[in-house]
Specification:
Chain lengths: 309, 344
């Protein structure tokens, strides 16, 4: 197991290196400069600015320098935010995004899984239809619509939760709910399909023949088997939620990563783009590893190599 | 001998989009204490549906017991609530399924799966249940049971898995064991082992067995009595000797003729012509009549009642009517009958 994990971690670094390199060169292909007032600068001033940030050197040299810094954990300094180091900038903003994403993910999957289970157990009844209805809404209506509705009805009309900003747990509730609609929808649909399939399998009939009750069948026998495919979908979904949602962060005035990332692309803030990409990629490979380990926990048939004794 | 289970005039229908499929049309039989009753018949004849109905394992949404009684120790299982039925399943009546590769839960250790009914029905503690599980695995012939109960089904071979399924079924010493084609998915050498094991265990725990199969060779090996099913009905029922040495129904003749034999002189294996009836539109007369070369006019018009051949042997064919012409079984059946006699 330890050997396997070590191998996986090495591959993770290799993956990250490749992603960092590709992003670097792709970014260099995009025309434009990071300097906001570029059109006001003369050619000489432009040269000075470029030299200051090391952009006058040939691309391979820039690349070597960047990778060198990256290996030391230095992501450079941001061009747009008053020369703040990218690491400071990112980690300050990573917190809210991760918290919001994790909360939405946790709430969304739990609600979605329960909806899916009950829909499968009460197939073709009102329970099933309502669960489908919720899932279709969650998948087809963009989350900013939910955000607006929640802000207006729950925040303003009912006054239960604050509408804006990020100043404590109660501030996180509305954005969490708005963001969790998608995981609810996805988890509910997947869970329903899988549960129905699992409930029709021979080992469920055997469990019934043993005298197991309805709930024992659903939760002791079926749930774990139905979870296996869901884990595959939820991994990547967790990343996309935890790396920040531009729209939700904007609507609820949350100082998160999503907003910053989009802004840095429009102004060619190279270090921030690179830093964010590498960070997202790192999260991604870590989650993929977590998903693989989860598989082994849920399904004994796919215990990781070396894990079976 | 005392009857442990009696099925009386059982009628079961499935509601499909195409209409009502009358899968079981008036099945009667009884199971005596300690005996093995084999139910034979081709796919779709209603063997599995009958036994699933006894266990009440038919899908609740689209199946319906239209009429009839399933009497187990005097209680009508067809009328019990789900809760009452849960207490009977696994405790008094248990079941072995056809495909051991899919009938064990892949994410649960074998030990837990065996312990489940013990904890549920016999209020055993976990430790006691584990001890019993080890004993059961030993009983069904799995080596190193202490080690094996911690393993998952995928670490077992097909034959070993079927032994586990048998261990689960026997955990609570059931009074009735239903084996739904327990050897069909296994290869021949393993089949023989599993059959030996079942015969052996039946003696040890004194249970009655309903054995579903379409393999007449297996029937001769394990059963005391045989019921032949066709088109949702029992067409012939009797002791193994009676059904094998003195078959009465043309369908039974067909089944016996289509048994492959090692020293067969005939070039081709006999197959019963035609296909089974569509039970969406059950025939008015004898369901086997369209495939029956001995069919008479009355076979197409009226369903034959059960004619008594002996106290234990009944068959539903008009050929047994006193007015029917005397028909001899075909030569293939006779030659096989002679062979059965010879081997005995």
């Amino acid at each position: 197991m330890a050997k396997y994990l070590l191998k996986r971690v090495l591959y993770m670094f290799l993956t990250l290196f490749i992603i960092a390199s590709l992003t670097f060169f792709l970014m260099k292909i995009i025309p434009g400069t990071p300097f906001a007032s570029a059109n006001k600068l003369g050619p000489a001033q432009m040269e000075i600015m470029k030299a200051k940030y090391g952009l006058d050197q040939p691309v391979p040299v820039q690349y070597a320098k960047y990778i060198g810094n990256l290996l030391q954990g230095d992501l450079g300094i941001s061009f747009q935010f008053n020369n703040t180091p990218v690491t400071d900038l990112m980690f300050k903003r990573l917190g809210p995004s991760m918290q919001l994403g994790a909360q939405a993910m946790l709430f969304g999957t739990i609600v979605g899984i329960l909806l899916g289970i009950f829909a499968a157990l009460r197939q073709n009844t009102w329970v099933d239809y309502s669960s489908t209805f919720v899932a279709v809404l969650g998948k087809s209506i963009p989350n900013f619509v939910f955000a607006g509705l929640l802000q207006y009805f729950v925040g303003v009309k009912l006054g239960w939760f604050p509408v804006l900003f990020w100043r404590g747990f109660e501030y996180t509730i509305l954005p969490t709910i708005a963001l969790s609609m998608l995981p609810i929808a996805i988890a509910a649909r997947f869970m329903r399909t899988e549960m129905i399939e699992v409930l029709g399998s021979d080992y469920i009939t055997l469990a019934k023949a043993k005298g197991a009750s309805f709930f024992e069948i659903a939760f002791k026998h079926a749930l774990r088997n139905a979870m296996i495919p869901l884990v595959t979908v939820l991994g990547p979904l967790a990343i996309s939620l935890m790396t920040g949602s531009l729209v939700i962060e904007k609507i609820f005035a949350i100082p998160g990563l999503g907003e910053q990332f989009v802004k840095s692309i429009t102004v060619n803030d190279y270090p921030v783009i690179m830093g964010t990409t590498v960070l997202f990629a790192a999260l991604f490979v870590v989650i993929i590893l977590v998903v693989d380990i989860l598989y082994g926990i849920i399904d004994p048939r796919i215990r990781l190599s070396g894990g079976k004794k | 001998m005392e009857n442990i289970l009696e099925v009386k005039d059982l009628n079961i229908s499935f509601h499909t989009f195409a209409g009502e499929v009358k899968a079981i049309r008036g099945v009667n039989f009884e199971l005596k204490k300690g005996e093995t009753l084999a139910i034979v018949g081709e796919s779709g004849s209603g063997k599995s549906v009958t036994t699933k109905a006894i266990m009440r394992l038919l899908p609740p949404g689209n199946s319906e017991i239209k009429q009839g009684e399933i009497l187990f120790e005097g209680k009508d299982l067809a009328k019990l609530t789900d809760k009452q039925m849960q207490k009977i399943r696994g405790q008094d009546i248990s079941m072995i399924f056809q495909d051991p590769m899919t009938s064990l839960n892949p994410t649960m250790t074998v030990g837990k799966q065996i312990m489940e009914p013990l904890i549920k029905h016999q209020n055993m503690s976990k430790t006691a249940a584990r001890e019993r599980a080890v004993q059961l695995l030993k009983l069904v012939g799995i080596p190193k049971p202490e080690l094996r109960i911690k393993q998952y089904p995928h670490q077992f071979s097909g034959g070993m898995r079927q032994r586990v399924v048998i261990a689960i079924a026997l955990a609570c010493n059931p009074k009735v064991l239903i084996a739904d084609e327990p050897t069909t998915a296994l290869d021949v050498t393993i089949q023989a082992q599993i059959l030996e094991l079942m015969k052996d265990l039946q003696k040890k725990i004194d249970t009655s067995i309903i054995f579903i199969t379409h393999d007449l060779g297996v029937v001769a090996n394990v059963a005391d009595r045989v019921a032949v099913m066709y088109g949702g009905k029992i067409v012939e029922i009797g002791t193994v000797d009676e059904v094998f040495y003195n078959p009465q129904h043309p369908y039974t003749w067909g089944l016996i003729s289509s048994m492959p034999s090692l020293d067969a002189k005939e070039e081709e294996l006999y197959a019963i012509p035609g296909t089974p009836p569509n039970l969406l539109y059950p025939p008015k007369g004898d369901a086997f009549a369209p495939r029956n070369e001995y069919a008479m006019q009355i076979d197409l018009e009226e369903q034959p009642p059960m004619f008594k051949v002996s106290d234990t042997h009944y068959a539903a064919t008009w050929l047994l009517h006193p007015d029917a012409p005397k028909v001899e079984p075909p030569e293939a059946v006779k030659s096989r009958m002679r062979k059965f006699m010879g081997t005995k």
